[in-house]
Specification:
By secondary structure, the chain is an all-alpha fold. The protein has helices at 10-22, 26-38, 45-57, 61-73, 80-93, 96-108. Helix content is 58%, strand content 0%. This is Pentacotripeptide-repeat region of PRORP domain-containing protein.
Length: 136
């Protein structure tokens, strides 16, 4: 794109990140995600999803949690597959409090930032009922 004088936008970056992530090239996907942010391009929920899951694949769970929290702060809705990927990784690591919070947040339909040193009984209150929300 640069050779044609074009600057990549969020859609172009997201498409490439997805291609790397789908082809087991997690390191390349994460590097491209970082380049996207360095270029001042705001990631969409799909770029966040793929980057979070790639961090999990690379066993960089702390980075995955930090990126999930960035997703929450940026108001780019974390999709269900991001939450499921992160929940499973937290459960495997024995971080049951974080896994429980992700489950609760998904049921509520409201995402909150995750704190690594949260007590194992951490929960999040729902703002209203969870009727019609996506289930795990």
């Amino acid at each position: 794109m640069a050779s044609y004088g074009l600057a990549p936008d969020a859609k172009a970056y997201s498409t490439l990140i997805r291609a790397y992530a789908s082809n087991n090239r997690a390191e390349k996907a994460v590097a491209l995600f970082e380049a996207m942010r360095e270029d001042g391009v705001r990631p969409c929920q799909f770029a966040y999803r793929d980057a979070v899951c790639c961090f999990v694949r690379l066993q960089r769970l702390e980075d995955a949690l930090a990126l999930y929290n960035e997703t929450v702060r940026s108001k780019a809705a974390a999709c269900g597959s991001t939450c499921r990927c992160l929940k499973r990784a937290c459960q495997k690591r024995g971080w049951t409090g974080l896994a429980d919070q992700i489950i609760q947040d998904t049921a509520c339909g409201e995402k909150a930032e995750l704190v690594l040193d949260a007590p194992s009984d951490a929960t999040t209150e729902c703002g209203g009922g969870a009727e019609g929300s996506e289930s795990e």
